[in-house]
Amino acid sequence: MTLTYPEQLEVIQKHQASAPVQTVALADDLGLKVWHVPNWPDDLSGKIVKSADQGGPSGYAIYVNKGHHVNRRRFTTAHEIAHFILHRQFIGDGLVDDGLYRSRLSNSMEAQANKLAADILMPRNLLNQHIANGVTSVARLAEIFQVSESAMSIRVGAPN
Ligand SMILES: [Zn+2]
Q: Which Gene3D superfamilies does this entry report, sorted A to Z (predicted)?
């Protein structure tokens, strides 16, 4: 199963109809199987691995540190989805993200993945709808979108 880039964006948009965006279901629709792994060290966030037996129809599996808070796990899943969409040719057999989302990819590629992860979890139009409806507290918005307050405060403070 290979979706084109516009098809992938369409799948993402379909999952952004309401908050919180369901990251595992989104991954599933992109052909990625997500595994939550116990007993990982805290400074390991996630991996995306080419795997015929554990991967989804795309041939890739995402592994997430089960010990992390749900908001963090959701961000990690979105971050690995972003690597799949943006950097698939660099994944090779697998790509490992440490606690600060650093891998063997360049810092600028990691920044791209973080940006797309934020775009996935906190879509502008949905966020603006909530703000227009009077939800202006960062804490409440973070709760609605199931992201950390720090991620939401960056999102709300940034122009785009
Ligand atoms: Zn990364």
A: 1.10.10.2910
Distance from the CA of 135 to the center of ligand 1, in angstroms?
31
> What is the 143 CA–ligand 1 centroid distance (Å)?
24
By the CB criterion, residues less than 5 angstroms from ion ligand 1 are 97, 101, 103, 110, 113
Q: Provide the H-helix boundaries in the chain.
A: 5-14, 23-29, 70-86, 88-91, 107-121, 124-132, 138-145, 149-157
C-alpha 126/C-alpha 69 separation (Å) is: 23
Q: Distance, CA 49 to ligand 1 centroid (Å)?
A: 12
* Model confidence pLDDT, tens digit, residues 74-93: 999 999 999 999 999 999 99
